[in-house]
Amino acid sequence: MDPDGKAAWMVAGAAFGGITSYITARSKGVKGWKLVRATFWGAALGAIGGPRLKVAGRIAKKFPYRVKGYSKSDGRLFSVIKRSGKNKGRKFSLDYHQIRETVNGKKRRSHRKVLHVHFGKNIHKHRVIYPRRKKIKWIN
After folding, report:
1. I need a surface site. Which of 24, 71, 85, 90 has the fewest CB within 10 A?
2. Can you tell me the distance from the alpha carbon of 134 to that of 23, in angstroms, rounded to the nearest whole number?
3. DSSP assignment letter at 22
4. Has this prediction a pTM greater than 0.70?
């Protein structure tokens, strides 16, 4: 059924990757669905194996954009970043935190967290998604 034995090595690699990622995630205090996700991806990468994973990494590096994930410290849900080239840097970002801005020389901030978007590198320009800008209560 499997004359060259690749399927058996894939199963062994998946088991090893799943177990090691489970142990690593548990040692970091991960619980619930995040633990399931870490174990799943560890098993998937273990099944793919070393040389094929190296080739996949080379292909991913050639792709000009990357997606940077969730950041609890600055309220970023995700952002799309161009790795290299003429217009290198952040292209798009979806954030959920209090807005701090200056209007007519006066600093103000929102009363609660606001879901908003940044386009380009301008971190001070907020395009509000929810709640609408006129519904936001501002604190001086």
Report:
1. 85
2. 49
3. H
4. no
